[in-house]
Amino acid sequence: MRKLYIAVRMHADAFEDADGEDLLVPGNYVVSVPISLSAAHGANCALDAFHSQIGIKCLDTVNIYVYDAQTKAFLERDAKIPLYALEKDARHLQKMDADAPTSLPAGFDDAVFGREFVYRLEGMRAMLAFLPAKDAKRMRRAIQEKLGPLNRRLALQR
Predict the structure, then answer these.
(1) For residue 31, which of 44, 49, 10, 9 has the smallest C-alpha distance?
(2) How does pLDDT run across 108-133, given as a tens digit for each residue?
(3) Cα–Cα distance between 144 and 135 in angstroms, integer?
(4) Dist CA 39 CA 76 (whole Å)
């Protein structure tokens, strides 16, 4: 079995719209999946186990990331695999907190922070299509200035 880490982050502007129980979900989770699974199948397995045990009423209020500490990479779900098909293969899903016996892998928080930062900037880029050309150009430049150092930092971590 190999451990995969799941990071659940609530959107900053979603607190007002979120269901009360959904506010308890954000945090870090660890789950064991069979080592024989590919990266995508491992992500499916981890997410299937997570969603079968942790209910989120409004998925639009959170981002969920699956991280493999061995490869130091985020894993993406394979959309061709039916939902919950690999749930039975996962073991020991638990939310990590001060009382959890397992600690987070080195670099995990930085990697999740970087992913969240890029996610937000990509959202801003998508909005540029609706701005006047002059404003869009100015905003593109500002985004590139913010992304440059982060991209270099993430490249050094790989």
Answers:
(1) 49
(2) 777 777 777 666 667 776 777 788 88
(3) 14
(4) 8
